[in-house]
Design goal:
Fumarate Reductase Iron-sulfur Protein, Chain B, domain 2; Rossmann fold; about 475 residues; 6-stranded parallel β-sheet
């Protein structure tokens, strides 16, 4: 069966220009990251510390979420809980309707992409405008992000120049990056001042102090959370950290793993709405905490490691599969290795189960993950869950749905034959005698490989000829 994923992959492999963009970009990101960690011992120590911080959070996530809510509420932030993306969208809509808002200016937020928030609001007559430059570009072109930290990485500057000229004909055509950025800044600046509501994501939510932390490079996040009178932050429930002192190690490793920067340009800390003696900031702050399958992931001791992710994108940057097919081929919000393990767990193996086959299991993703998520191990676990009858007791949604009765029977027969010496030896001898009948076309396997050629003698026969005792 040819699935939509396979069709999209085939299309992507045929786009040589886009593949060249990805190759160049990923090579640059890998080099930049490597240059930021010249001392491997120091890197491993920092990874161990970051892993411990995130693992500690997950060991007591319910208690920390309660503490976070308590302290945010004390600080004047209104906290909302959403089990599903639909609930989260309805919460945002209710806040906007309360204020009669017809537009919202957004900082970068992958959770809002997960919610499909832009489309949801636009269907209800509300303009949702992205202010992150990459997000703004792909929004103009009606696309979704192809990378979690660089949404428009698949586009060349010439394509972006043409797009800007088509959408804003009054702006002279230019392929100068600085001039394009300046044009986007002028377009967005009025929107910042006019929007009644701003929205952002959250990189870290500190339970100890009730503080929302955002990292960014463009300043648009700060504008989105400061200028509009109402600020809505949306995040997954796993983004909490226990203490403020946990932030420096995570902040140290996040940008260096993501883009090869020693630190981002802006680090924003929001602990509440504007106070009486303050000159700027929103008068109302909301936090929407989204579950969307995360509690189910949390309930499994092995899959739990998925929630350690800090969304740096290092696994994506180093993935040999992603660099060839790009982010859009996955058909998901989160592409690459992290999407390969997260999306099937969120939406079910029946929906995105094929993604777990889109991996060479080379291990590069696990080697560069700053919080040491064992991504290859989790991929193997999900592959197991997808085909085993005895997977019903796992929290993985739709476990066993990829099981094929004929394939299962074939492997059971192989297991019996391999454990029965007389049958195995007879089968081996017969196969070598009939080796000339092996077809060259073995379906999908030989579409990118040569058909295997059987040896003229079995291993036992070869050992016997050498006089080796193999019994």
């Amino acid at each position: 069966m040819t699935t939509e994923f396979r069709i999209d992959v085939k299309k992507a492999l045929g786009k040589s220009e886009v593949r060249a963009h990805f190759r160049k970009a990923m090579d640059t990101l890998m080099i930049n990251r490597r240059n930021q960690f010249p001392d491997d011992a120091a890197l491993q120590a920092l990874r161990t510390q970051a892993q411990a911080i995130r693992a500690n959070v997950l060991s007591k996530l319910p208690e920390l979420l309660q503490q976070l809510e308590t302290n945010l509420t004390k600080n004047g932030v209104q906290v909302h809980w959403a089990e599903t993306t639909d609930e989260a969208n309805q919460i945002v809509l209710a806040i906007m309707q309360k204020h009669g808002a017809k537009s919202i200016i957004k900082g970068k937020s992958m959770v809002s992409e997960e919610m499909g928030l832009n489309h949801f609001l636009e269907e209800r007559g509300i303009e949702a405008l992205e202010s992150d430059l990459g997000e703004f570009i792909i929004q103009l072109d009606g696309e979704t992000p192809s990378h979690i930290i660089m949404p428009a990485i698949h586009k060349s500057k010439e394509q972006i120049s043409t797009l800007f000229h088509e959408k804003f004909p009054d702006i002279p055509y230019t392929d100068n990056v600085d001039e394009l950025t300046a044009s986007a800044r002028r377009i967005l600046r009025d929107k910042f001042y006019a929007a009644p509501v701003g929205l952002s994501g959250v990189n870290f939510a500190v339970a100890e102090t009730g503080t929302l932390c955002l990292v960014e490079n463009e300043g648009n996040g700060r504008m989105s959370t400061t200028i509009p009178p109402v600020h809505i932050a949306v995040t997954g429930i796993e983004k909490v950290v226990e203490k403020l002192s946990d932030i420096p190690p995570l902040l140290s490793i996040l940008p260096r793993s993501a883009t090869g920067q020693p630190i981002t340009t802006y680090f924003n800390m929001i602990s509440g709405p504007r106070k009486a003696d303050e000159k700027d900031g929103p008068t109302e702050v909301h936090l929407v905490l989204l579950d969307n399958g995360r509690s189910r992931i949390y309930s499994d001791s092995e899959l739990l490691a998925t929630l350690r992710c800090i969304r740096c994108g290092a696994c994506i940057n180093h993935c040999p599969v992603y660099v060839r097919i790009g982010g859009h081929s996955y058909g998901t919000v989160y592409p690459g290795p992290i999407g390969t393990i997260l999306e099937p767990q969120k939406s079910g193996l029946s929906v995105h189960g094929e993604l777990i086959q889109a991996s060479s299991l080379c291990g590069a993703c696990g080697e560069v993950c700053p919080v040491r998520i064992p991504i290859p191990n989790i991929i193997n676990r999900l592959r197991y869950d997808s085909v085993r009858k005895d997977s019903e007791n796992t929290p993985t949604q739709d476990a066993g749905t990829k099981r094929k009765p004929l394939e299962a029977a074939t492997w059971q027969a192989w297991s019996w034959a391999a454990s029965t010496p007389s049958v195995y030896n007879f089968g081996g001898k017969t196969a070598t005698q009939l080796r000339g009948l092996v077809p060259n076309n073995l379906g999908a396997w030989t579409s990118v490989r040569s058909a295997p050629k059987l040896a003229e003698q079995t291993l036992h026969q070869q050992l016997k000829a050498l006089g080796v005792d193999h019994e």
